[in-house]
Amino acid sequence: MATEGINAQISIPKHNIKKFKTYLESCNNFKGLEYKIAIKEGISFLKLTIKIKDEIVAYKISGDEYNMDHVGKYLNY
C-alpha cells in the first residue's frame, strides 16, 4: 500500500462537510488528514472506484530519494 497517504475524492452536500470530517477524525486510521475542498454543484461522480496503489504518484524511485514534506507553493484563487 502507498506510504504517501490517501488520495481520495468524495461528493457530498456542502452542509455535510463538517459532519463528514468529524466522523473521519473519530476513526483512528483517518486522524490528522489534510483536506482540500472544492465546491461543485450537481452530480460529481457516476460510480465508485477504489484502487490500491503501490505509489499514489508513480515516481518509480526509492522512498529515501524524495521528501513528501517538500511541496510546491499553494495558490489562492
Please sum up the structure shown.
The chain has 77 residues and is largely without helices or strands. The protein is built from 1 helix and no strands.
Helix/strand/pairing category? little secondary structure
Return the string of H and E elements: H
* Rounded Rg: 15 Å
Residues in helix, %: 10-25%
The overall number of domains is: 1
Largest sheet entry: none
Low-confidence stretches: none
Secondary structure: number of strands: 0
Q: Terminal Cα separation, in Å?
A: 33 Å
Indicate the overall shape. Answer: globular
Average pLDDT: 79
Strand content: under 5%
What's the helix count?
1
What attributes does this structure have?
12% helix; 77 residues; little secondary structure; 1 helix
Describe the structure.
The protein is low in regular secondary structure and 77 residues long. It has one domain (1-77). 12% of the residues lie in helices and 0% in strands. It has one helix and no strands. The chain has one helix at 17-25. The relative contact order is 0.23.
Strand-helix topology:
Blueprint: H1 17-25
